[in-house]
Amino acid sequence: MRINNLNAKYFHEFPLIYINQNLVMMIKNNLLPIFLMFFFIVFSCSNDDDTAPPITAENTFSCKINGKLFIPKDHGGFPVILDGTSVNLAQNNSWRFIFGNRSTDVYIYLHEVEKTGSYSLSTSEGRGDFFQKNENLIELDLSPWDSNIEHISTLESGEIEVLELEVNKRIVLEFDKITLVNKDDASDKVVLTEGKLNINLETLYGEKN
Asked: What is the pLDDT of residue 205?
């Protein structure tokens, strides 16, 4: 009887302990599965976003910037570009590409592309406006909201390989490794790797409208 009295006293003085334990069990049994399902959905979406498109996929670009995958996305920036992609083609078959997301802009300019093969990069000025140039250039802006392009190509940056070309219509290219330098500090470098681009002007804007 003494033990029973002690138990009765214990339950009387500490009922919240058992209420809280029941609450924890309810959360564990009912809310935990919901949380795990939500986590799985978010994780799955992140994995989809982190997959580089194959080079055979039209109107795509991807590369790694210091090892981190970059894929252009619609971000409401300026200039306004659809799905983070802007393509301009001059009459002399010079191509300018701008690819962006909210945190990074990549500028690529190829001068008078008339055949497949290797195109060596030259030193850029970091202005993002290339059509008066007769060189092949890449620029990178890691903080596009301040309109200040930091990293530029140089004569030692590397080469771009044009794999397929239909003049004034379609281009497919790749690069293995491109090294860019900060225009104000040559010791500050950014490495672009695994670059893949496939652009078809006949379908580019039709697909995105």
From this structure: 76
Higher pLDDT, 71 or 209: 71
More confident residue, 42 or 101: 101
Average per-residue pLDDT in the chain?
79
| Cα dihedral: 57, 107, 145, 85 (round 10) | -30
Task: Print the SS3 string covering 3-44.
Answer: HHHHHHHHHHHCHHHHHHHHHHHHHHHHHHHHHHHHHHHHHH
Q: Which long-range contacts (CB under 8 A, 24 or more apart) does 91-98 make?
A: 93/167, 93/168, 94/130, 94/131, 95/171, 95/199, 96/130, 96/131, 97/61, 97/197, 97/199, 98/128
Token pair, residue 208, equals: 């995105």
Q: Record the pTM.
A: 0.73
Per-residue confidence band for 207, with pLDDT thresholds at 50, 70 and 90: low
Query: Sorting pLDDT into bands at 50, 70 and 90, what band is 15?
Result: very low
Q: Which residue has the tokens 């935990």?
A: 32
DSSP 149-187: --EE--TTS-EEEEEEEETTTEEEEEEEEEEEEETTEEE
d(CA 24, CA 178): 54
The number of helices, as runs of H, and strands, as runs of E, in the chain is: 4, 11
Identify the CA nearest to 175 among candidates 187, 191, 186. Answer: 191
